[in-house]
Design a protein that fits this description.
The complex is a heterodimer. By secondary structure, chain A is mainly α. Chain A contains eleven helices and no strands. The two termini of chain A are 34 Å apart. Chain B starts with 5 loop residues before the first strand and ends with a helix. The chains are: A mainly alpha, B alpha/beta. Chains A and B meet through helix 8 and helix 9 of A and helix 2 of B.
Chain lengths: 286, 264
């Protein structure tokens, strides 16, 4: 029977969709990048305008153009590049050392109960030390040069990676371990087929943490023992009241942080192809 | 039906756990009181019982994942593995493709990767996953994951297949499809199967014998021979003989429930 008395029913109709122009569609796809970029650009424009208008004193807080000018001057100075190289060496060697020691040791501690009983107190003990407090003693052992800085960087990276790695092994899924045991997987196969793949996300978290800590280690070590490095540039610029140069040097550290984190993210995604990607953009039905 | 040779023979299998959470007096938890079970070559036997009756535990003891407290199990020797397990909830390695998941058992047995993949391929086809070799488990439906799980166990070519509630997490329709598929594959592969389930109709439909178990502590209440013709199709579930078996087993379990309820 046809529905005639309209008043007795609430009618649900298809929802009208807004038609978008081509620019509108492009904007929707790139909304995140567009808004992010305009936030950044807007901030720098305000900063520049503020400095030009005299609201900000460029002596303490150099304007973006001054920072760029300082950068152009600085990259032509020969020791600048050796400073960059020095700091990069600390980061790279410190990271590699911490990664290749922390991951295997973390796997062992996570897997073998007895190893963990024996080493846990030491891990907790050393991890509890505020790391800068160790600098004087590391200087005593290794001197003021790059070895000492690498050790400081290493300590920061090592603990950031080993703790999540241990956690990752311990939360390994029992049902998958059962499968491996059921098919009589050898000890090494058990590790490569179950333990390591399920620990990868945890190691990745550790690496991301480590990269942050690593750079803190570089700065603190370089400020403490001023031989070479970008940290030295920062301090020298501050001593000579060059806020533009100082900001440029800080920017280099920032750039290092951004680039290493991005690289780590790419490597992590490569190892996690088997995961459903979490950030699939929702396509709007047209 | 089955030849007279025994594929599996269990005598007095008992399983106790030390219950760490309980106080000192009730420190021991008996999962299986005592189990005697004979399974003939080529036979399809279901272990049916309420959850916690120790039926999965029994499979794990047979498979060697758990050690029994007492008793003895004999498995007929085979060239390679005697038994292979089809796991609950598929338990596929999420980081391996279907092909690598199915080859896993062979690789563990020392077969080279390429050779293992070559030998896995026909089993992928047998379970109906041709074309999905390079997919990861998250790209498969629940039923397809179970197909891969089954193929993984079949790949090691053990004569005895231990299946631990493989269809429990599937929706009702997919489960029925998989039951029919399992019979087709069982027919093609000539394996002996011990199948654990808590679904009465599933046990009857699949099996030559249904072994009904009591709630904890697990023991065998009845060993019922299912005299239904093979090959079986799903519409058999609506025949009077089938329903009569369902009734018989249902009453057995219901009386058992009533007894436990009175006891507690």
């Amino acid at each position: 029977m046809a529905v005639e008395s309209a008043a007795a029913y609430r009618v649900i109709l298809p929802r009208a969709r807004r038609r978008r122009t081509r620019i509108g569609r492009w904007y929707r796809r790139n909304e995140r990048a567009v808004l992010g970029l305009s936030g950044l650009v807007g901030f720098f424009v305000l900063w520049e305008v503020g400095a030009a208008a005299g609201w900000i004193d460029p002596f303490f807080f150099a304007s973006p153009t001054l920072v760029v000018q300082a950068a152009i001057r600085e990259v032509q100075v020969s020791h600048f590049w050796s400073d960059v190289q020095y700091s990069l060496t600390e980061v790279i060697v410190g990271f590699l050392a911490s990664f290749f020691l922390a991951v295997p040791l973390g796997l062992l501690i996570g897997w073998y109960r007895r190893v963990s009983y024996a080493l846990d107190p030491w891990l907790n003990f050393i991890n509890a030390i505020p790391r800068p407090a160790l600098i004087p003693i590391v200087v005593l052992w290794f001197g003021l040069d790059i070895q000492m800085k690498i050790v400081i960087v290493f300590i920061g990276g090592f603990f950031s990676i080993i703790l999540p790695t241990v956690e990752g092994v311990r939360t390994c899924e029992q049902s998958l371990l059962d499968v491996a045991h059921s098919f009589r997987a050898s000890r090494s196969r058990l590790f490569t087929s179950v333990v390591i793949p399920s620990t990868v996300p945890f190691i990745a978290t550790g690496v991301r943490l480590a990269l942050g800590r690593l750079l803190i280690g570089v700065v603190v070590a370089e400020l403490y023992a001023q031989t070479q490095g970008i940290g030295v540039i920062i301090d020298r610029a501050a001593d000579t009241l060059q806020s533009d140069l100082m900001m440029f040097a800080v920017l280099i550290f920032t750039l290092m942080g951004v680039l290493t984190t991005e690289a780590a993210g790419r490597i992590e995604r490569h190892f996690q192809r088997w995961r459903p990607s979490a950030n699939v953009d929702v396509e709007e039905v047209v | 039906m089955a030849s007279s040779e025994l594929a599996l023979s269990a005598r007095g299998v008992r399983m106790e756990y030390r219950d760490r959470s309980a106080d000192q007096t009730a420190a021991r938890l008996v999962a299986i009181e005592s189990m005697d079970l004979d399974v003939h070559d080529g036979e399809f036997v279901s272990l049916l019982g309420p959850s916690g009756c120790g039926k999965s535990t029994f499979l794990k003891i047979v498979n060697g994942l758990l050690g029994a407290t007492a008793g003895e199990i004999r498995l007929r020797r085979a060239k390679g593995r005697e038994d292979a397990m089809v796991f609950q909830d598929a338990a596929l390695f999420p980081w391996y493709t279907v092909l690598d998941n199915v080859s896993y058992g062979l690789i563990c047995a020392g077969v080279k990767r390429d050779e293992a993949r070559k030998r896995a391929q026909p089993l992928i086809e047998l379970v109906g996953l041709a074309g999905f070799e390079q997919k990861y488990p998250y790209q498969l439906s629940g039923g397809m994951q179970q197909r891969a799980n089954l193929a993984r166990a079949l790949a090691v070519d053990a004569p005895l297949l231990l299946m631990d509630e493989p269809f429990a997490s599937l929706d009702a329709q997919t489960r029925e499809v998989m039951q029919a598929e399992l019979l087709r594959i069982w027919n093609a592969s000539q394996k002996t199967v011990v199948f654990v389930t808590h679904q009465i109709d599933e046990a009857i439909f699949l099996s030559d014998r249904v072994v009904v178990m009591s709630a904890r502590p697990g023991r065998i209440l009845a060993d019922i021979k299912i005299d239904l013709p093979r090959p079986r199709a799903l519409d058999m579930k609506r025949t009077p003989q089938f329903v009569a078996y369902e009734d018989q087993i249902w009453k057995l379990l219901a009386s058992q429930r009533a007894a436990t309820a009175q006891a507690s």
